[in-house]
Sequence to fold (297 residues):
Amino acid sequence: MDLISVDDLSDPLLEELLRRAGHWATHEPDAATRHLTGRQVVTAFFEHSTRTLMSFEIAARRLGGSVTRLPVEMSSVAKGETLRDTALTLDAMAPDAFVIRHPEPGAAREVAGWMATPVINAGDGAGEHPSQGLLDVATIRRHVGHIEGLVVAICGDIRHSRVANSTAKLLTRLGAEVRLAGPARLMPEGHDGPDGIDEAIGGADVVMMLRVQRERLSEDLGDAPGEYLARYGLTGERLSLAKPDAKVMHPGPMNRGVEIEDAVADGERSLIRAQVAMGVATRMAILEMVTGEARAR
Ligand code: ASP
Fold:
């Protein structure tokens, strides 16, 4: 099977993935559970990445699999080969899973239509980022204990964020109240939620900050140094509006001093590195699932 959108997951599959992610967060695979042994995972990232790329590759290896990365800049894409021909070429090499990141929303779905290989969407422009949504939910479950009834404020550049898309859908589906807030220019069209960051954060259990995706903005925001942080960023002062034990999250990469203050990012309420650790565990669960090796146990 493919994993293109969190909407592709039935309730039982979602539950099984979160359970398996929780399992791999606390267990090392052994000879009997290295379910990707003898399997080949191909990664092709047409946009930059540190966490997603590395954690998919580490996850595959931890489960005994082999990884081959398409060096996009050295590939025939640079000679003008189309995405379809690239996908068909890699498919003919019969890997067991294909992990793709691409700047065009919908690209991963198109690729999945061309390939027999199971395809995992590792981010398609401002579309979806299902593995991030899953790891965010798995992190909250592990460190807060439950999702239902939580108030989660997701703040910043919502308009360009595939993370906001996937994470908000999953949180809402699992019974959390999601509040989206950000500068008006960075909110999706037609959004009608709390107007301000302070209202969204007020009384929240979790505050998730998002990066300003300047690479997807046609012009600069025109903010003076420090202005974005003061108006929209997560400072210690703003965090004090949330519940006293509220957790702080950020999918990374962080613009320190822009959407988040250092002391908050590195503070004891921060789950940011826990998200990274859960990223590996979640991607192990995803790779097991798409390669057909997830078993009830
Ligand atoms: N790493 C996340 C993504 O690829 C968030 C970001 O880039 O700001 O969508």
Remarks:
- The domain at 6-128+277-296 is CATH 3.40.50.1370 (Rossmann fold).
- The mean pLDDT is 94.
- DSSP finds eleven helices and eight strands in the chain.
- Residues 123, 129, 162-163, 211, 213, 251-252 surround aspartic acid (CB under 6 Å).
